[in-house]
């Protein structure tokens, strides 16, 4: 979704005149990072000052004898062991195993013998009630509880997804300690998300984003308990999805053949996401935003000027049955490739000029009795598309225009609100009884100078007038990093840590909303990312991390 | 001249596109706003040379036989440059085929670097001739320059003329004539190692990127309130107390490593040690140097927004000058080739000074009345110390525009502007005034690249990247009121990346390719000023920087090649271009 182009020539916030600190705040430790506090903040957390030492050669993840288990859990154990004890080598380990083989083994600073007098945390027992599902869904239960009060800690959850969230929290509350090496405090946590859909939109059409970078971003999402990758995979500019049914689309519509996602790439991403309890919701936006599709297949509207086609193309051509025949085949493939129940169908920003110019479309309008109301044609198109996708058994997510345009959609449709004023739109969409997502206030591509995470932190999806029932229909939101000025050179450092704000807003309790209180925890989490190899950029002015990013 | 240039570039482009599809591309932001401007040749140099004439036909390079050599024997600058450019000529991980199917006349055999002075200079100077010529004719190329620094500029341009065709041959125009020189002799980049620590490998990549854009001064802001990362041999307590941590320091070896890295690329390193303000980190090592600020008769009281409890150097204390003399001597010895030290002197508000009874007495005893008098006293002392140890001084404009009479010969950095300080006159006012008074000046006010904003610049029928459009269109002499002599005293400009919101995670991608826009403004002819055309050339240059391991961020939609960040053939983080052990 693009906001209308506006001339954004705002002067940046002037707080640092010469690139300098404002007068009166010369204390360099304006923000002292917390130690061993998780992000997003758990619903309830109680800690005492009692410390346990945690040592790599004397700690084990265990599956409780009555617990359900599966490959998801055992591979998560491998990951979290490394995250906790060898964070600096972790990222290569998951993204570039070849490179990781050559890495030097890091020796723990404190040997087990040094810890004779310390109380050791020896194991984390995991207990999962339900058999593992293969894929997470919008309905998944992600709650967990974590108890650390003896040498055996306990992590309990209903589902594997809750266990994954709990493992992440567990890895975050363990901290480096001068005397103990790694330590954790006596802790009781009961935790669950406030919203079920906590998403990140990545746009791989404006710029291609390498699979490796997408995986790094998925890892970063998991470390903030975000659980939906909204994969805006194609758009006007390029079509990097390699279709089995229509390989010609990416042959003509990708930037070039180095800039495509093969079926293997897609399967790898979905698996990488699944391992982290992240859903991949793919978006095939139409009828607008489809210029790249039309390079290979004659589905777009031919625009006319002076009574003749002018070599330009508009949105999909709804006047031709062939358009829908094509979509049936494509979406049936997409439905089988992407396991999530939801597919995002776009539907935003349809420009009527080209439709208006085309005599066949005009004739079709007449035949259908639409008069000159092209929004009826748009409605007709989307109705066909949602019916096509509905017939595959999938549900769908759509941008708000579809509902604004009175298209009849299935009851389980999720509507994504992206326009301002969003409170009115949320009120309207939930009144109609649809489940709703908010992204308006979380357009991370809109960069500005200074600590702009605060602005994102202050936005709340329940900030509208509505009944409790309406509020319940808001299932979450998404941070959108549209790709005009973003590629793999800057995607990660632009997304992180700014997306922390959305992560906490969507996970933590509604009253966790004071940025001044959150800031020290934010700082710790930023440095946690850097330590784990993710280049999350500084957002709160001058600072440092124990490990700095140097590549 | 520039007409010739555009003419030839576009002919070359048509030719090249005809045979070999360009391997990168930028595209529109929205379909209804197609990009305007002339697409670029795949080997268009950046910044654009003053005069360039290139033939339509191509010649090819055989990596196994092509040699670059110079008329200087055993000159580290040229020898190391030739070695350094090998992976730039032949990007590792990309396939380059030998042109075995071509006849010899279509193979470039060698390039001679001819330095007319026959001298192997040690360190670049502001007044050096930076010009060079390139000719390529009949299978031989030649770069001629007065000195090694011009030769480095020529070698950089030559390296940019090479490109890999779609069928994997390394090609260059068969006949090339370039005559090139910079519009401004001083083309600086300021990096701030105090607000965030910038690890040495990142600094080296920044310096590499500077050399790819013909920047020639690295202004290293090495101390400030937040941290003091520069390890002093004489005063180890500076980093022991003033650095973020023992890991966040530049050892003497690191500093020499950086100076040498820059020197070999024809880049000066000017250190900045800012005082008497911005010294909180210094004050952690030497608390006694700071002024006790008073609230009425109570010392060490902050009155926030006016002054902190203790801040800025107490200019009445002799031990301050004793320290400064010894420390600046060490700085001078450390940066041994560089004549200039940047002494800061910005943003000193006298409220704290004037609140202090000792200073009030000092004023009375010395027939002084105000903060300007104190600043005059301090700057006289410090500039005198600098002079006594044989250093030349650069300062920010503040003391000068507060009325302190600085000796001519002090280089003034203009940073103030209405856009940064709402009550300030525009930078053009300061620039006109300082140059008219006879000071050499360096302009950084319009080039604060740490300030970021999202934006699209919209005309009636096209959309551009707003930031690029903005930086690229800065006219350094806008509203300039000085005479021709004053005009010449604007020796150049500095792109500044203050460090509040950048560190190793983002400094490269935040600065590049944005800083390249400024680079062309400072190097190329004033009439190279069409942003619609330039955006295409800049995109070619961005992809070139990616091939050299610099994660330069995009200014528009599009793509480069199979070497983009994160791809299998990515040069970003390749050991050849990153400096990780």
UniProtKB/TrEMBL annotation, chain A:
Beta-hexosaminidase eukaryotic type N-terminal domain span: 38-173
EC number: 3.2.1.52
GO molecular function, one term: beta-N-acetylhexosaminidase activity
Catalytic residues (positions): 349 (proton donor)
Reaction(s) this enzyme catalyzes, per UniProt: Hydrolysis of terminal non-reducing N-acetyl-D-hexosamine residues in N-acetyl-beta-D-hexosaminides
One of the record's GO cellular component terms: lysosome
Keyword annotations from UniProtKB, A to Z: Disulfide bond, Glycoprotein, Glycosidase, Hydrolase, Signal
The keyword Transcription regulation is annotated on this UniProt entry: no
Highest taxon, organism lineage: Eukaryota
Keyword Cell membrane on entry: no
Domain spans labelled Glycoside hydrolase family 20 catalytic: 195-509
BP-aspect Gene Ontology terms: carbohydrate metabolic process; ganglioside catabolic process; glycosaminoglycan metabolic process
InterPro entries reported in the protein's UniProt record: Beta_hexosaminidase_sua/sub, GH, Glyco_hydro_20_cat, Hex-like_dom2, HEX_eukaryotic_N
Disulphide bridges, residue numbers: 70-132, 303-354, 527-545
UniProt signal peptide: 1-19
Family designation: Belongs to the glycosyl hydrolase 20 family.
Protein name as annotated: Beta-hexosaminidase
Species assigned in the record: Adineta steineri
Automatic annotation (TrEMBL), chain B:
Domain Beta-hexosaminidase eukaryotic type N-terminal: 45-161
A GO term for molecular function: beta-N-acetylhexosaminidase activity
Disulfide bonds: 75-120, 293-352, 543-560
Matching InterPro entries: Beta_hexosaminidase_sua/sub, GH, Glyco_hydro_20_cat, Hex-like_dom2, HEX_eukaryotic_N
Range of residues in the leader sequence: 1-24
The organism's place on the tree of life at top rank: Eukaryota
Recorded GO CC terms: lysosome; membrane
Stored Pfam families: Glyco_hydro_20, Glycohydro_20b2
Keywords, in A-Z order: Disulfide bond, Glycoprotein, Glycosidase, Hydrolase, Signal
Family: Belongs to the glycosyl hydrolase 20 family.
Protein name listed in UniProt: Beta-hexosaminidase
Organism of origin: Adineta steineri
